[in-house]
Design goal:
three-stranded antiparallel beta sheet, 108 residues
């Protein structure tokens, strides 16, 4: 009888220790900057304006265009919402990058 209790106690201790090891280490989050070019921005623009297919994050804001040459302005967008549309990661901020790119700072 004592041996059975001892084995049960030992098994419970091993299982509790394994559960602690399995759940004790949290995942490490990293902050990452993800650049998006004109065609990716265009995907977001197209979701807002059916004729838009390209977009740029210009000094005046995120702008959406249609046409070939010359491009025709169809409307503007929100850089933060564009980041939320373009990535499933948690978005911290949106900024303007090189060549009028959209840079999304995210947590992964």
């Amino acid at each position: 009888m004592k041996m059975r209790r001892l084995l049960t106690l030992a098994a419970g201790t091993v299982l509790a220790g394994a559960a602690t090891v399995a759940f004790a280490a949290p995942a490490q989050a990293a902050t990452v900057d993800i650049p998006f070019g004109p065609l990716s921005i265009g995907d977001y623009c197209h979701s807002r304006y059916s004729t838009a297919w390209i977009g740029f994050y210009e000094s005046s804001g995120l702008r959406c265009y249609t046409g070939s040459s010359p491009l025709q302005y169809v409307g503007s967008g929100d850089p933060y919402l564009a980041c939320k549309y373009l990535t499933p990661d948690v978005v911290m901020s949106a900024s303007r990058g090189a060549s009028d790119a959209l840079v999304c700072r995210v947590i992964r």
